[in-house]
Amino acid sequence: MKARSSQLPVAITPIAVSAEQGAALLGVSERAFHQLRHEPGFPAARDLSPSGGGRAVRWSVIELAAWFAARPPAASRGEPDQLAGRRYRDGRPVAVSGRTARMRGAGEPLSGAGE
Known about the structure:
This protein is α+β, with helices and mostly antiparallel strands.
């Protein structure tokens, strides 16, 4: 007798996924997936276990995709705070403030690899 495999053939696309698979589908960690479950409008899970005991909880792939598509695009945040105001000369950062600037003099290039 051949052993049964829980793996689906490549040609079959699942219509329902576990939390782990749903997280992978959305590109987030499983923890983040469970946090998203509490957001308004997130698709409801379905209990597929015969007794309704919650051991086979799955999410609809179509509903997850629709929820994702309805999310607003990420806003452009601009330059990160740690890079804001940093100046470059010849592709290298230039010290403009702080201890490094006092030691080298403001505007003097930082020493680094490639010199």
